[in-house]
Structures are given as structure tokens and as C-alpha cells.
Write a structure and sequence with these properties.
Order of helices and strands: EHEHHEEHHEHEHHEHHHH
Strand content: 5-15%
Strand order of the largest sheet: 3-4-2-5-1-6-7
Structural class: alpha/beta
Shape: globular
Bound molecules: adenosine-5'-triphosphate, magnesium ion
Number of domains: 1
Length: 252
């Protein structure tokens, strides 16, 4: 049975999509089968893999027009694509019965086909994110090491607690990690200390350093391992993938 991970933080630009792309690519290189789902109307995950004008999208599937159709990207790596159309989904689906479970129902036939299913959420806590949290076993929260970034975390924790209570008892925060980290900055080190104190063993040891190659790779439609396998970004995301697998092997 595949592990379903939602990658969410309602704060924008914290590295959600970059992380989903490169954790997915990293896990697939470590011989895990991976499905990445673009649940964001910005479609950045889809674009990061160079997929333009996809034939089947998550929006049409959510509207009941067809089932989820994975697009093959690389060995062991598929994605479910998104387009800007998805921006209408929150409104259109808001009056549907069981609206929080629409994505759960769609994902069901695919769950056993992959070792990992990772969902890239939009920077909001609306119906799309709730749909992701309703199907997920685990919640990963990437964050930038800024003071205001930790302040905002109370909101996502509140939403996670409500989803866990009312919609999905199995949901747990299992991975908090820092992106765009610069160890020379005292603020960054201080924020990491605060996160460690609060989230303790939920925090990954790996920190994703600030690395321009991670920002460049999407323009070539590839992940960091194909774009520049020797850069810090590739090193950090591979370390993070090894940590993810190790935690799962240890039953955490
Ligand atoms: N470790 C890093 N080093 C340098 N640049 C990074 C790093 N991680 C992400 N970026 C860049 O920061 C920007 C925001 O990253 P990303 O799109 O992954 O964030 P996001 O949380 O998905 O944003 P949104 O909330 O809009 O969906 C992008 O331009 C990305 O290329
Ligand atoms: Mg994003």
C-alpha cells in the first residue's frame, strides 16, 4: 500500500513545489515507484516537468469527467497534471455532497500501484488542500527559516487537527523541513532551533540549502538530478529522500 503524503503550507513560495518535484525524483532514483499530484491551479509542478497542455488533468477528474490519468515522466516517476482551470474548482465543488472526499475517491484505484504518492498543495487552506489532507497519511510542511514563517504554522496545525478529528483519523505531521537555508545567518539558525524545540522528532535533519540550481532546473523541464546532479540542491534532496525512506523503514 502506497504512502500518501500531502506537502502543504498556506504561506506562498516556501518551497512546496520544488520539494515535491525533487523528493519525487529522488525517491524514484532510489527505486521507489512515485506518483506526484499537482493539486495547485498554478500548475507549477506540471510545468516543472515540462508538461504543457496535458490531455488529462486533475480538474476534469475532480469534475467527474474521467478518472485520474497519470503521465509518465521518468523511470518510476509519474505525475497527475494540473492547469489554470483548477482555479475554478474550489467554487464549483463547494456545494457537492461529500466535497472533502472527491479526491480520496479518485485516488483509490492508484494507491496500490505506487510506493509513494506525494501531493503538491496550493498556498491556501481551501477545499483543494482539505481534499489532500483527507486522503493523506502524512503531512509534510516545508518552511523558510524566517520568524514570520513559524508564526503562520499555528493555522496549518489547527486545520490539520480539524481534518484529523472530523475527516481522516490517520493524518499526522511527519515531516517538517527547512528550505532555502543559509547556515551563516543567525536568524536561520535561531529559527531552526525553535522548530526543533516545537516539532522535535518530526523535523528532518536534512536542511535544503539555498541553491540557485534548484530555481533554474524548472526552466529546463527537469528535476535537480537531471539538471545538475552534483549541486548542493541535488545532494540535499537526496539526503532528505534517504531520511524519508529510513524513517518509514523504522516504522515512523
Ligand atoms: N532551496 C532553494 N534554493 C533556491 N531557490 C529555491 C529553493 N527552493 C525553492 N526555490 C525557489 O523559490 C521559489 C518558490 O519555490 P516554490 O515554487 O517551490 O514554492 P511554493 O511553496 O511551491 O510556492 P507556491 O506557494 O506559490 O506554490 C521558486 O522560484 C523556486 O525555484
Ligand atoms: Mg507551489
Amino acid at each position: 500500500m502506497g504512502r500518501i503524503i500531502a506537502c502543504s503550507n498556506h504561506k506562498g513560495g516556501v518551497g512546496k513545489t520544488t520539494s515535491v518535484v525533487n523528493i519525487g525524483a529522488g525517491l524514484s532514483r532510489l527505486k521507489k515507484t512515485v506518483l506526484l499530484v499537482d493539486l495547485d491551479p498554478q500548475a507549477n509542478l506540471t510545468q516543472s516537468f515540462g508538461v504543457n497542455n496535458p490531455e488529462f488533468t486533475i480538474y476534469e477528474a475532480l469534475k467527474g469527467e474521467h478518472e485520474l490519468v497519470p503521465i509518465h515522466i521518468d523511470k518510476n516517476l509519474d505525475i497527475i497534471a494540473s492547469t489554470l482551470d483548477l482555479s475554478g474548482a474550489e467554487m464549483e465543488l463547494s456545494s457537492e455532497a461529500g466535497r472533502e472526499y472527491i479526491f480520496t475517491e479518485l485516488l483509490e484505484p492508484l494507491i496500490n500501484k505506487y510506493d509513494y504518492i506525494i501531493i503538491d498543495c496550493p498556498p491556501s487552506l481551501g477545499l483543494l488542500t482539505i481534499n489532500a489532507l483527507t486522503v493523506a497519511d502524512e503531512l509534510f510542511i516545508p518552511l523558510q527559516p524566517h520568524y514570520l514563517a513559524i508564526k503562520g504554522l499555528t493555522k496549518i496545525i489547527e486545520v490539520k487537527d480539524k481534518v484529523k478529528k472530523r475527516l481522516n483519523k490517520k493524518l499526522e505531521i511527519t515531516g517538517v523541513f527547512v528550505t532555502q537555508y543559509d547556515k551563516r545567518k543567525i536568524l536561520h539558525r535561531d529559527v531552526v532551533d525553535t522548530i526543533n524545540t516545537y516539532f522535535q522528532d518530526k523535523v528532518f535533519n536534512t536542511k535544503i540549502r539555498d541553491n540557485i540550481a534548484l530555481a533554474e532546473a524548472p526552466s529546463t523541464g527537469t528535476d535537480i538530478f537531471r539538471y545538475d546532479p552534483k549541486c548542493f540542491g541535488a545532494e540535499d534532496y537526496m539526503d532528505l529522500c534517504r531520511e524519508i525512506i529510513k524513517r518509514h523503514e523504522n516504522g515512523r
